[in-house]
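Below is a filled-in request sheet from our internal design queue. Each sheet records the structural input a requester submitted and the sequence that came back. We keep these sheets so that new team members can see what a complete request looks like end to end.

REQUESTER: design group, bay 2
PRIORITY: normal
MODE: inverse folding
CHAIN LENGTH: 152
BACKBONE (tokenized):
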């Protein structure tokens, strides 16, 4: 048996069936396994070279309540390595920083009970791009360019 594509299994050239679409199994806590979770970003307006980024944990596209631990890091390229150049990450008032892996650049954080975390990203010089990455259950999510634009 060979796999012709991701949805049809074939023996030689004759289709023998398609996989059934399955709803993810529920777990005892009443939710879905962590692999069905994702992150939504809400990027605030820049003020005094700082931008608040609200991170909301979601499950199957809906906000997910509960405490979640995530890693957060800042980079000058999307999905790039941690880059501490001219940028500082601080607690934005919702959720909390548990540990700094790299001071003010790579943080372990916990959401509040609503599954929300706010991080403030502050620039101290002009920059062409700044991205916030969130690691949830081993998956990396990007905020996209935060859009710092104020003059120095």
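RETURNED SEQUENCE:
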């Amino acid at each position: 048996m060979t796999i012709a594509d991701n949805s049809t299994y074939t023996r030689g050239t004759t289709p023998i069936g398609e996989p059934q679409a399955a709803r993810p199994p529920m777990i005892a806590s009443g939710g879905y396994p962590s692999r069905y979770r994702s992150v939504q970003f809400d990027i605030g307006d820049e003020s005094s070279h700082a931008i608040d980024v609200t991170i909301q944990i979601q499950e199957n596209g809906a906000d997910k309540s509960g405490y979640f631990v995530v890693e957060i890091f800042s980079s000058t390229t999307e999905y790039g390595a941690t880059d501490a150049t001219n940028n500082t990450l601080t607690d934005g008032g919702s959720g909390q920083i548990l540990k700094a892996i790299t001071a003010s650049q790579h943080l372990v954080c916990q959401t509040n009970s609503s599954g929300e975390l706010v991080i403030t990203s502050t620039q101290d010089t002009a920059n062409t791009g700044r991205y916030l990455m969130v690691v949830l259950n081993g998956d990396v999510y990007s905020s996209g360019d935060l859009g710092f634009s104020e003059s120095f």
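SHEET NOTES:
- Residues 40 and 56 are 5 Å apart (CA to CA).
- DSSP finds no helices and 13 strands in the chain.
FILED BY: M.R.
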